[in-house]
Design a protein that fits this description.
This protein is an alpha/beta fold and 381 residues long. It has 2 domains: 11-178, Rossmann fold (3-Layer(aba) Sandwich), CATH 3.40.50.1970; 183-380, Up-down Bundle (Dehydroquinate synthase-like, alpha domain), CATH 1.20.1090. The protein has 15 helices and 9 strands. The protein has helices spanning 18-27, 43-55, 72-85, 96-108, 115-118, 183-201, 208-230, 235-252, 259-271, 275-290, 295-304, 313-329, 347-354, 358-361, 370-380; strands spanning 11-14, 33-37, 59-63, 89-94, 120-121, 130-135, 147-152, 157-162, 170-173. The strands form 2 sheets. It has a 6-stranded parallel β-sheet with strand order 1-9-6-4-2-3, sandwiched between helices. The chain has a 3-stranded mixed β-sheet with strand order 5-8-7.
């Protein structure tokens, strides 16, 4: 068995009431100045907890400026605010963009490295500020991953800071925080989580340990996401998707994603299409491209999704891709780039941009050249 290194938060709390548990734990932690990144809709849920911390002598400052898929420039501005506040702890309470920003800020508060110096894999040299992450969507798995992704406005490309030092000290996953997420966002983020699992399983660096997370995550999300989409107050479905998202996040560090994410990135950076939607649109076409190189593994996925009764693995593998495509469509997601107002004349530029994401493309089970990427985009158009 090949060597694998699994990094997880020192404390992982999962279940209803995890939000309250975080504030209870933090009150006992000894930290005195908490900087929270969040979103306005969460403020009513945390106000009373913040008042309690302040009554106990703990200073709290909240920043709610993070929008979808922020740039390095945007998080650097918030970093200055956290430094001025004198934060000795950082918490992210929000979706993946909020959590990624919290990770960046906690890492850079006491760090002498510049942003340019930490971009890439393994370049961040340390983190000394306490960090907790509480997801309010079931999607990115950022709360249990060593990744933080931002837009670099100097070249309009998405880039990652990948480091074990970005793994939070604690993650609190409260499915109740996801109940109010709108149906479309539920679908986008859930499919993102599903893709994390799938791409870790259909991967050149797949590993038996991570395979367990990946298969169980796909099973949970596939069976429950449509329920959560149709009935946002279905607590059982919300909890299952939240757990599946955690499994997806645990796939990101040791194995990571591949061509689906690589080809989705330019859609977000160039056209501001939501990350989960970008993945959902590209997913079937990349799977069809990868099928010849991973028939057995696609057949395994078919079984995990409950698609049984096939005599030949080729048939069950194709059935898995077809079922995933139908599942995506059932949540009113278009499977054509043309439906997203992307000009066909720009597909070559998009393909060239995707080819720059070699940190993910190297994981793909089939090599993807410029012509391959362009052909995939054309089929998706």
């Amino acid at each position: 068995m090949k060597l694998i290194k699994l990094n997880t938060p020192s404390q992982l709390v999962i279940g209803d009431g995890s939000l309250a548990q975080f504030f209870e734990d933090f009150g006992k932690s000894g930290h005195q100045r908490l900087f929270i990144l969040s979103i306005p809709v969460i403020r009513p849920l945390i106000e009373n907890y913040i008042l309690k911390l302040e009554e106990d002598g703990i200073a709290v400052q909240i920043n709610e400026q993070i929008a979808a898929e922020p740039s390095f420039a945007e998080v650097e501005q918030i970093l200055d605010e956290a430094k001025t506040f004198g934060a000795d702890a950082v918490a992210g309470i929000g979706g993946g963009s909020v959590l990624d920003a919290a990770k960046f800020i906690a890492a850079q508060l006491q760090n002498t490295q510049t942003t340019a110096e930490i971009i890439g894999i393994g370049n961040l040299q340390g983190r000394s500020t306490y960090l907790a992450c509480l997801p309010t969507t079931a999607g990115t798995g950022s709360e249990v991953s060593p990744n933080a992704i931002f837009l670099d406005t100097t070249d309009n490309e998405k880039k990652g800071v990948i480091s074990p030092f970005l793994m939070p000290d604690a993650a609190y996953v409260d499915p109740l925080l996801t109940v109010g997420v709108p149906p479309a966002v539920t679908a986008f983020t859930g499919i993102d989580a599903f893709t994390h699992c799938l791409e870790a399983y259909i991967n050149r660096f797949a590993h038996p340990v991570v395979d367990r997370f990946a298969l169980e995550g796909m099973k949970l999300i596939y069976k429950n996401l449509k329920k959560a989409y149709d009935h946002g107050d279905d607590l059982e479905a919300r909890a299952a998707v939240a757990l599946g998202s955690v499994y997806g996040g645990m796939c990101l560090g040791p194995v990571n994603t591949a061509a689906v994410h690589a080809l989705a990135y330019p859609l977000g950076s160039k056209y501001k299409i939501a990350h989960g939607l970008s993945n959902a649109v590209m997913l079937p076409y990349v799977l069809e491209y990868n099928l010849p190189a991973a028939v057995d593994r696609f057949s395994d996925i078919a079984q995990a999704l409950g698609l049984n009764g096939y005599t030949y693995k080729e048939d069950s593998a194709k059935a898995a891709i077809w079922a995933i495509k139908e599942w995506i469509v059932s949540m009113n997601i278009p499977l054509k780039l043309s439906a997203l107002s992307i000009p066909e004349t720009e597909l070559e530029d998009i393909a060239a941009s995707a080819l720059k994401v070699q940190r993910l493309l190297r994981n793909n089970v089939r090599e993807i050249t410029f012509d391959d990427a362009l052909d995939i985009y054309k089929r998706a158009f």
